[in-house]
């Protein structure tokens, strides 16, 4: 762990989903390749499948920005079709039972909840996907709320986190995530940020401004126990 300041115990923890709780590539990459096969079959897309690194680099973005990055030459209708196919394939993937959370995620969440910490998800993903991942991995019931940009129509994670904090009258929280959008969301809402550097999607510079950086999810429990 890399700690820059003494942490205070929060009343709540807010978690990003992709790259923080969920090993997104276990679902995303198989669906990604199948989606482009479908787009080519339907005559919507004719090129090669863009590299996996491109779609992985978009994790944490809102949906519109993801498709503008991955499919910059398609019109809105084409992007909407790509999104429909992707969601369909992701549902199939979650039902397959072949996707994974990061090690010790469920156990750590259970331990934090048992100590009275309120737990939330704050994700830029679409509602069906974010809640689907939580249900598929039997962690949905651990959360006091599952917030997504898709459900609340927020343009930034700053806005989403503000909505969450206001809805639940939370004064002190740790924002836990792996991207710069998580750092921004926590800091602009006056909260502590725990940067997660184990997914490998972003780079170290994205987590600048975090109060602490962890290299495995279960380190979060020790941080909480040592906080004053």
UniProtKB/TrEMBL annotation:
Keywords linked to the UniProt accession: Hydrolase
Source organism (scientific name): Paenibacillus sediminis
InterPro entries for the chain: HAD-like_hydrolase_sf (IPR050155), HAD-like_sf (IPR036412), HAD-SF_hydro_IA (IPR006439), HAD_2 (IPR041492), HAD_sf (IPR023214), PGP-like_dom2 (IPR023198)
GO MF terms, alphabetically ordered: hydrolase activity
Keyword Hydrolase: yes
Protein known as: HAD superfamily hydrolase (TIGR01549 family)
The keyword Transferase is assigned to this record: no
Signal peptide location: none
């Amino acid at each position: 762990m890399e700690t820059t300041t003494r942490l205070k115990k929060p009343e709540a923890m807010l978690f990003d989903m992709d790259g923080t709780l969920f090993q997104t590539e276990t679902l995303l990459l198989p669906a990604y390749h199948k989606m482009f096969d479908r787009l080519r079959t339907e005559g919507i897309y004719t090129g090669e499948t863009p590299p996996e690194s491109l779609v992985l680099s978009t994790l944490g973005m809102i949906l519109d920005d993801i498709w503008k990055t991955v499919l910059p030459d398609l019109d809105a209708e084409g992007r909407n079709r790509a999104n429909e196919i992707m969601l369909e394939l992701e549902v199939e993937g979650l039902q397959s039972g072949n996707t994974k959370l990061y090690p010790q995620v469920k156990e750590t969440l259970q331990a934090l909840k048992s100590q009275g910490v309120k737990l939330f998800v704050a994700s830029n993903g679409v509602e069906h996907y974010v809640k689907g991942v939580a249900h598929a991995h039997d962690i949905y019931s651990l959360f006091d709320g599952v917030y997504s940009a898709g459900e609340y129509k927020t343009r930034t994670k700053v806005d989403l986190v503000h909505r969450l904090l206001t809805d639940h009258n939370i004064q002190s929280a740790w924002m836990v995530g792996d991207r710069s959008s998580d750092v921004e969301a926590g800091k602009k809402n006056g909260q502590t940020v725990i940067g997660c550097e184990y997914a490998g999607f972003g780079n170290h510079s994205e987590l600048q401004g975090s109060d602490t950086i962890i290299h495995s999810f279960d380190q979060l429990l020790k941080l909480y126990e040592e906080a004053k």
